[in-house]
Amino acid sequence: MDFRDFLKGFPFQRWLTPKACRPLSLVFSQFREVLTANNQALEIIADMGEKLSGEYLFDLRYVEATVEELIAAMRRAIGAINTLTQDQCATLHEVFVSMEARVRAILTKRDDREGPPLLWLAEVETRHWPLVGGKAAHLSELLNNPKVRVPEGFVITSRLFHDVLDLNGIRPEFDLFEQALAESDVNEAQLDMLRQALQEKVLSAEPPAGFLDALAGFLQRLADLGGPPLFLAVRSSAQEEDMDFSFAGQFHSELQVPPQAEAVYRAYLQVAASLFGAKAIRYRRQVFPEGGPMSIAACCQRMIPARASGIIYSVDPMEPGSQKMVVVGALGQGQAVVEGQVPTDFF
Predict the structure, then answer these.
(1) Cα angle vertex 313, ends 344, 133, to 5°?
(2) In this structure, are residues 4 and 38 in contact, taking their beta carbons and an 8 Å threshold?
(3) Residue 329: strand, helix, or coil
């Protein structure tokens, strides 16, 4: 909806008071400013849409510059509306400020820390995806399918990952590591030392104040749902995991974790430290070399006493063009199947 449609619903008669009366030429001039700013915003949006058609090449600089132009145009439009209406639409500015902050968080890749450190899977919304990572995001979608049974659980979001880095003084090493990883002529030995140092510091990191109490509350609520004795699977859910890139088997998972806050937190640290594991870094450099810094969340779900488990490949990895699905399975829990530790059946 553009501003013309928006303005149709305005109660203009409320302005026709002695105090509000202004020369008609001034009112039209102010209204023209609203339309001009609105048209500028629409032109910018149309240009971005044209670039997205696939016929043009553009980079992050174009996106950043264009977003700045759009923000400026919208700021002018809202200012002009409030001048025209004598500040009867002041709430528009509050909405604009909130949206601007959200857009800037996305552009600066800070949207993975804008939110709570804990979220129930059932309460995850699209806006939470940067916080919960790819795996948890897809699991939350499956909860809306009544034909699919998803074990209850919650997410330790990437907000906690950033809080842990900041609280424990790990941020400088993290930034140094990401900077080294982005260099084309990186010193492999130095990179490996940085990677190992990060892992060690993450594994010994202390939780933020109040987090363990909040986590205990989530665990109690999960236990109150009933069912068999509660044990948890604490599984990785990195930003890019199960999205454009699978990262399958690259990060760590902890199974049969007892429902105590300290135990779950330590299991989370094992998952978080695997972001800097050797195989995860190799995979990231191969398929995601220019993706920028990554963070990691963890999906905490009730363990299911599985009789059998396995992996479904929607595309046969040996014959991608065969249009066949492949199921690989074995008796018991699936971790041994994923890690190739047991003989499997193929279907």
Answers:
(1) 115
(2) yes
(3) strand
Provide the domain limits for residue 340. 306-347
Question: Which residues are within 8 A (CB) of 107 and not within 5 positions of it... i.e. 6 or more apart?
Answer: 63, 64, 67
Calculate ∠ Cα 297-300-305, nearest 5°. 145
| pLDDT score at 292 | 64
Q: Judge if 347 and 213 occupy the same domain.
A: no
Within this chain, do residues 135 and 101 fall inside the same structural domain, yes or no? no
| DSSP assignment letter at 17 | S
Q: Are residues 269 and 331 in the same domain?
A: no
Report how far residue 238's alpha carbon sits from residue 273's, in angstroms, rounded to the nearest whole number. Answer: 12
- Nearest-5° Cα angle at 198, 192 to 204: 140
Are 106 and 63 spatial neighbours (Cβ–Cβ below 8 Å)?
no
Highest-scoring range by mean pLDDT, 39-53, 87-101, 219-233:
219-233
DSSP letter at 205 equals: P
Provide the terminal-to-terminal Cα distance of the chain, rounded to the nearest Å.
Answer: 51
Both structure tokens of 251: 């990060």
